[in-house]
Design a protein that fits this description.
This protein has about 250 residues and is an alpha+beta fold. It has 3 domains: about 5-60, RNA-binding S4 domain (Structural Genomics Hypothetical 15.5 Kd Protein In mrcA-pckA Intergenic Region, Chain A); about 65-130 and about 220-240, 2-Layer Sandwich (Alpha-Beta Plaits); about 135-215, 2-Layer Sandwich (Alpha-Beta Plaits), CATH 3.30.70.1560. Helices cover about 20% and strands about 30% of the residues. It is built from 7 helices and 17 strands. The protein has helices at about 10-15, 20-30, 90, 120-125, 145-155, 195-200, 230-240; strands spanning about 5, 30-35, 35-40, 45, 50-55, 55-60, 65-70, 100, 110-115, 135-140, 160, 160-165, 170-175, 180-185, 205-215, 215-220, 225-230. Strands 7, 8, 9, 10, 13, 14, 15, 16 and 17 form a 9-stranded mixed β-sheet that branches. A hairpin with a 7-residue loop joins strand 8 and strand 9. Helix 1 (about 10-15) packs across helix 2. It is elongated and about 70 Å long.
């Protein structure tokens, strides 16, 4: 049976080089060659018999896919490299042989659940807006939180000219002496600084922020800077688009 050819950008993404969109950009920039010929237009299809190189380096399309859940600590950037020399999430996984990268971003001072993988297809799926993957955060905020104050977040607020999708919110604790509150907020969008901006909008500036859960993946058993392999069933569920959180017994 003849092997089915696949789009070049998909093959690059599956090898863990970059997301599919970023892989398309690599092609357009002329940084990809197939069987020794530079490719700079989208639409090319390849099979496992074709030699693909990115920036002159052969593409190992058969690289084993790996999946990790990291409890990102404060003071670490969510990139593969940093021109300021700061520690990155990839540095934390330095003993992992595969070339992994983060799915989405967490701010420098935000902690919590972050998926690391070399599976570009899954990363692209999880980050696509239509997936509506729940991300649950706990925020320590300045001020006395009330459900009345948080109500606008449940309807959506306008940030930088664009309205946010409705969020789920809850108050975990209020310290009237220190005038701080702990608020849980669930969103499925992924805008830059979104949770901080949303809470700032309702007069509750964020002091500390932690992502407790991504889809059904929580931080149980993971201290900051620790990570674990995702289980086969967890990966299977993510790929199937089953992001439901099943409470632990």
């Amino acid at each position: 049976m003849e092997e089915k050819a696949e789009r070049l950008q998909k093959v690059i993404a599956q090898a863990g080089i970059a997301s599919r969109r970023a892989s398309e950009q690599l092609i357009l920039e002329g940084r990809v060659a197939v069987n020794g010929e530079q490719v700079s237009k989208l639409g090319t299809k390849v099979t496992s018999h074709d030699e693909v190189k990115v920036d002159g380096v052969p593409l190992d399309g058969r690289e084993k896919k790996v999946y990790y859940l990291l409890n990102k600590p404060r003071g670490v950037v969510t990139t593969a490299s940093d021109d300021k020399g700061r520690t990155t999430v990839v540095d934390i996984l330095s003993d992992v042989d595969a070339r992994v990268y983060p799915v989405g971003r967490l701010d420098y001072d935000t902690t919590g659940a972050l998926i690391m993988t070399n599976d570009g297809e899954l990363a692209n799926q999880l980050m696509h807006p239509k997936g509506k993957v729940d991300k649950v955060y706990t925020a320590k905020v300045k001020g006395i939180a009330t459900m009345e104050a948080l109500a606008p977040l449940k309807r959506g607020v306008v940030i930088k000219g664009k309205k946010t999708a409705p969020a789920r919110v809850a108050i975990e604790k209020v310290d009237t002496d220190k005038k701080v509150s702990f608020v849980t907020i669930t969103i499925h969008e992924g805008r830059n600084h979104q949770v901080k901006d949303m809470l700032q909008k309702v007069g509750l500036p964020v002091e500390k922020l932690r992502r407790d859960r991504y889809a059904f993946l929580d931080l149980v058993g993971l201290q900051p800077s620790e990570y674990r392999d995702l289980k086969h069933d967890e990966v299977k569920r993510l790929k199937a688009g089953d992001y439901r959180y099943l409470r632990r017994k």
